[in-house]
Amino acid sequence: MKFLGKKGFDFRWNISFLITLVLVFLLSSWSYKNRVYDWDMPGYIGCLFQNNFPTSPEKVHQYTYISIKKEASPYQYKDISGLVQPNKAVQFFKQDANAFSEQLPYYQIKIGYNVAVLFLYKLGFSPPHSVLLVSIISYFLSGILLFFLFNRLFPGKNILTVLLTVGILILPPVRALSNTPVPDMFSLLFLLIFMTGVFKKWKSWQMFLVVLCLILIRPDYIIFALTYLVTSFGLTFFSQNRKINFNYILQGILFSGLYIFIIKYYHFPGWKDVFYDTFIDRRPLISAQPANFTFSYYLHFLFIKLINFKKISLVAVLMIGLIYYFSKDLWARTFSVFIFANIYLKFIFFPASAESRFFFGYLLLLFLMLCYVVSKKYNGFQLRKIA
């Protein structure tokens, strides 16, 4: 809160925060009332029951679907069972405990998300609610954090701060993440915390903890983590008379070691399996069918998907173009390229051009960088106002 002389506080700031708080609460309530029970939910609930019955796939399978059936509508349960849009693999997961058990490593590796689900479950929430509330709570907290970010980027522009915050929260990709049983809303919250640290110039080990959380939530953020370290290392190296900061090297080793440990510990099938099951054919039994495809097929598929990646590419190119137009600052330009590059690095490994949820977080970071350079150019914004 900003204090102003004898008045004691900034009345307009308090009103804008109160309005934002009410609107974010109402939007979060909408997400709760319209929560989605989809076929990703059994995977995360299965991870929850796997802790209780590590040697009994049958019990894990049984309790997973029983807990969902108690809460989901008949239509939603039918969808989870792979019957609304007929999906033989999903139907098989519903019917066969071993097939379901073989799918769990895809979900188990998201340790941070599963820990958050377990925490809510231990508080007394049902398994489906525990999964969904992680996204809904993250949505609410992301709205509050966005308000503070925009408030600091555009000090005194209270109406603009409210409009930007609510505007982002009502975007279709964000609304879709707010009420679905996936870890992406949770990771978006930590991306916003990451950006807060970037603007505040947090120390390298403070940023390490934030990025560590991202990897624990979704291990595929290892690419983001390593490219961030390379970017930070390069900026530090050239700004400090070519002095090597070994902290970044050590952190890179720790991140890589953690990623390898997670993959090995949970017997994660591997990138080829993820690609095959996502884009070629979802296998009911991973052990019964190898994930074989040629490199030429992958390149052909990548090219086709890239053609359909137009909207995200257009938005990303437009924003980085504006960032370079408004700012000649080496730090802002370099950091923006790091974020921009991660959109396409993500696409190379997971070319889901129709799934904006996988790329929206990076687009939001680019937008925040654009707000930073615009504010710095026109409002005399200085980082010491944030620190």
Question: What labels would you give this structure?
Answer:
mainly alpha, disordered C terminus, 73% helix, globular
Give an account of the 3D structure.
The protein is mostly helical and about 375 residues long. It is built from 20 helices and no strands. α3 (about 55-70) crosses α6 and α5 crosses α6. The two termini are about 15 Å apart.
What is this entry, summarized?
73% of the residues lie in helices and 0% in strands. By secondary structure, it is mainly α.
Number of helices, counting only DSSP H or I runs of 4 residues or more = 20
Poorly predicted regions are 1-8, 380-387
Largest sheet: none
First-last Cα distance: 14 Å
Please tally the β strands and state the result: 0
CA gyration radius, whole angstroms? 22 Å
Shape: globular
What is the secondary structure topology, with strand pairs?
Blueprint lengths: L10 H23 L7 H12 L4 H15 L2 H7 L7 H8 L1 H7 L1 H4 L2 H12 L4 H27 L4 H12 L2 H7 L5 H17 L3 H14 L4 H18 L6 H20 L5 H10 L14 H13 L2 H17 L3 H20 L10 H19 L9
Helix pairs in contact: 1-9, 1-10, 2-3, 3-6, 5-6, 8-9, 8-13, 9-10, 9-12, 12-13, 12-20, 13-15, 14-15, 14-19, 18-19, 18-20, 19-20
